[in-house]
Amino acid sequence: MVDSAARAEILANMSDLAARAVDRQYFLQPGVWEKYGKPGREKALEDAKYHFSFLAEAVAAGEPALFLDYVQWLQELFTGLHFPPDALRIALECTLDAIGAVLSPSVISASAALIETALKQVSAPPPDTPSFFTSENPLVEEARKYLLLLLDGQKTAAQDLVDGALHGGASIREIYLQVFQPSQKELGRLWQSNRISVAQEHYCTAATQLIMARLYPRMLDSKKTGKRLVAACVSGELHEIGMRMVADLIEMEGWDAHYAGANTPAAGIVRMVADRRPAILALSATMTFHLGALESIIREVRAGVPGSVKILVGGRALNVAPALWQTVGADGFARDAEGAVVAAALLVGENQEA
Fold first, then answer.
1. Phi, psi (rounded to 5 degrees) for 231
2. Domain ranges of the chain
């Protein structure tokens, strides 16, 4: 069961908490942070609010992994940015000080337990995140070259590479799962380790979305099954390419997929489900601090559209804590695009192996 009151308390005090944590951090390490000036302090406040957002969701869900995974991500990011080795430890200690001064005893207790566990975690070097280009992937070399072309700004050449793989016998499904999916994951790994810029990451993602769109007409030849799916990313969620892949792969299976896109308001999702009457509603939440929105949308759909629609959820936030899909009230969960196709079939009673 989700502790909505604890989440609400942390979020309601987030600006105060962030200001206290950053003030303390600047006091303890002035030489590290003051050189970045006013823009640096504003960025520090923004980042501190993220710390408390992730903490709020972990406390609400009773899932320490949600916060610990975020801290591991921060540890890798701080290393890539060449911050002092003790910068993250001090930031966490300042976070702990802030909650002790602001929150109620029960929320302090739950939050402090998570932060203290995180402090033990950062006492060791961050684990290496392995490449997502693995030898088990039959198209690994194509995936590797595809990403290199995009990072070099060669969008047309990347499109030609995809066309060449298709002419060589690869299916669109294989291109999605063995080229697009691992290259997007590798892109995120490179950004996290500070080896590429945010602008490069955005360019590569936008280019892949464009290439996917050019492939879409080739999917329409699939024999239709009569089943319908509505897919959307929850309000505030801008990471949409994973759900786009799910919708396209489902379309390849003969479903009629209605993809609402990124940052879809709850009211819009409820209306689309009411109008389309899908067998499956697929929802994605990549960022942990969107779990509250996910839970709210599921609740609103259940109340606003009585019927038999099954709700399938996914995204990184759910992957971190695999039992969380039940906590938020969904009917099923998938770790990736391929798993979503299998899970959707199982939810509507088709005989597919997981």
1. -130, 140
2. 4-121, 140-217, 223-347
